[in-house]
Each structure stands twice: as C-alpha cells, then as structure tokens.
Amino acid sequence: MGNLFNMDNGFFSFLSKVCDILFLSIIWLIVCIPIITIGPANTALYYVTVKVIRRERGYLFREFFKSFRLNFKRAAIVGVILTIMFFVLIFDLLTSWATLGSTSTMGSVLFGVYVAITFILTCFSIYAFPVLSRFDMNIKQLLKAASFMSMRHLPSTLAMVIVTVASLAGVLLIPILIFILPAASAFINSLLMEKVLKKYMPEEEGTDENISKDEWYRE
Predict the structure, then answer these.
(1) How far apart are the C-alpha atoms of 132 and 71, rounded to whole Å?
(2) What is the pLDDT, as a whole number, of residue 96?
(3) What distance in Å separates the CA atoms of residue 123 and residue 173, rounded to the nearest whole number?
(4) 30: CB partners within 8 A, 6+ apart
(5) Mean pLDDT throughout 43-53?
(6) Are 39 and 124 in contact (CB under 8 A)?
(7) Does residue 106 carry a pLDDT above 80?
(8) Per-residue b or e along 179-209, where b marks 16 or more CB atoms closer than 10 Å to that residue's CB
(9) Whether residue 89 has pLDDT greater than 60
(10) 188 near 170, Cβ under 8 Å?
C-alpha cells in the first residue's frame, strides 16, 4: 500500500512526465507567437525534451531559456527562412491543387514537384533544430549536417515525418491538442533522433577533464 503513494513509482513518474510535456508545450507555444522566435523555441523544445523529460537532468524552465538564449541568433535565422519557405509552399500547393481537375497536365506536374519539395524541406526541418541543440555549428555547417543526416537515415526520417504530420493533423482537427502534442511529438521523435545524433558525437577521450563534464546526452 505504501508503494502506491511513493513518488518514485511508475504511476507518479509517468504523471510527472505528462505534466512536463504539458508545461513544455505551453511555453513553446507562447514563445513561438512572435514568429521570429520559432527557431529558438524549436531548438529549446528538443533540448528540454531530451535533457529534462527523458534524462531527468535540470529544471524545465531554466533549461528551456538557457537553450533559447544560447542558440537564438542561428536558430532564429533558420526558423524565419523555413517559415517563409513553408508559407510559400503551402500557397503553391493550394494553387496547383485547384488546377488538378483541368485538362492541362501542368497543374499535376507542379503539384507533384511542390509535394516533393515540401517533403524534403520537412525532413530537413525535423533534423535542423535537434542538431543545433546538440552541436556547435554555424548555419552553413548546420544546413549540410541536417540535410545529410535526413537522407542518410531515411527510415528514421520517414518515421519522424509521420509523427510530425500526424501531430499537425491532430492539432488542426482538435485545436486544444496544441497544448500537449508539440512536446509529445518531440518526445517520440527523440527516441529515433538520439540514435542518429549519437553516431556523430565525438568519442570520449577518457581524460579527467572529460569525465568531469556533464555529458548527459551520452547516457
């Protein structure tokens, strides 16, 4: 009976993670509102999902704004570029979709091209912010790394695209899910993403200095 009220038991641990996912989704949504902060918010979302929720290291709000601040400039630039590109692609997709019923095949060709571009851009965006949260890269290096990883690990990429699209569809159908699905989808995707990122982390040198570092992401 005593185990039922033990804060370390499975039920309370699960409940704690659900609450963290809820709070993280809410703070992510608030921070995204200015639009220009979407990139830093996405970077911090992944960082906190892995470090605080999965690894149970640090405090949610403190770690969120730590990552947000450290990666702001690069993440903001990438986030704004991706946001503009997605808006343009959505407009192009809707425009070409409206011409599918016509006798001309040009609409169908353009629609297929836009779908392909949207897929590639989605794959890149899924990797960009987790990579930025883990590695110290300039924007050019980030573009190369995220593009390479997304294609090199295509099965994992496809699975994460499905999770991301399903979460977006869930929010569009049931808007209140915006308060939980952002962090929930980041949590699910991190199960695959971490396996990919660990392949590109430098090996530990085994010195006293390295041992003393808090390399929580190696756990």
Answers:
(1) 7
(2) 86
(3) 23
(4) none
(5) 96
(6) no
(7) no
(8) bbbbbbbbbbbbebbbebbeeeeeeeeeeee
(9) yes
(10) no
